[in-house]
Amino acid sequence: MQDHWRQAGRPKFDDITLSVGMNMSKDFYSWISTFFARKGERQHGAIVSADFNYRERARRTFTEALISQVDLPALDASRAEPAYMTVKIVPEMVTFETKPGPKLQAPQRPEQTGKLWQTRNFLLTIDGFDQACSPVTKVDQFSLKQQILEYNTGDRRFPIRIPGKLEYPNITFYVPSVHADPFVAASKKRLVDYEAPPATRLNGAIQYLTNDQKVLCTVTLSGVDIISSEEQKLESNAEALLMHKVTIQVEKLDFEYKTDAIG
Question: Could you give the CA distance from residue 195 to residue 100 in angstroms, rounded to a whole number?
Answer without folding.
Answer: 66
